[in-house]
Design brief:
single chain, mainly beta, four-stranded antiparallel sheet
Length: 123
């Protein structure tokens, strides 16, 4: 599956952005979002199973970010609210997440990755 993340940009602290992950067969996969800041390891952000009924979040974004999906549009969304400068990173979506939060948080468990989209939070 080919994935494409979009929706990044420059936003002020406290602002919001919505990222999209699209692909022709995204509806067939469990999908995760990760982010990577310069000089840092790739960090788990959120994941959602195919049906959308179960979601997982990284501790640093819990309560601020929401992952959702529209399978009819083959799109997974990441709504990011109350953004902070430390949220600045390149955000990636990945497909074929393994079951359960513990495994879904591990980037090396994913088979498919899209090109990232830059999110910059700065005043």
């Amino acid at each position: 599956v080919q994935l494409q993340a979009s929706g990044g940009g420059l936003v002020q602290p406290g602002g919001s952005l919505r990222l999209s992950c699209t692909g022709s067969t995204v509806s067939s996969y469990d999908v995760g979002w990760f982010r990577q800041a310069p000089g840092q390891e790739r960090e788990f952000v959120a994941a959602i199973i195919r049906s959308g009924s179960t979601t997982y979040y990284g501790d640093s974004v819990k309560g601020r970010f929401t992952i959702s999906r529209d399978n009819a549009k083959n799109t997974v969304y990441l709504q990011m609210n109350s953004l902070r400068p430390e949220d600045t990173a390149v955000y990636y979506c990945a497909a074929d997440a393994p079951p359960g939060r513990a495994l879904a948080a591990l980037p090396n468990m994913y088979d498919y990755w899209g090109k990232g989209t830059q999110v910059t939070v700065s005043s």
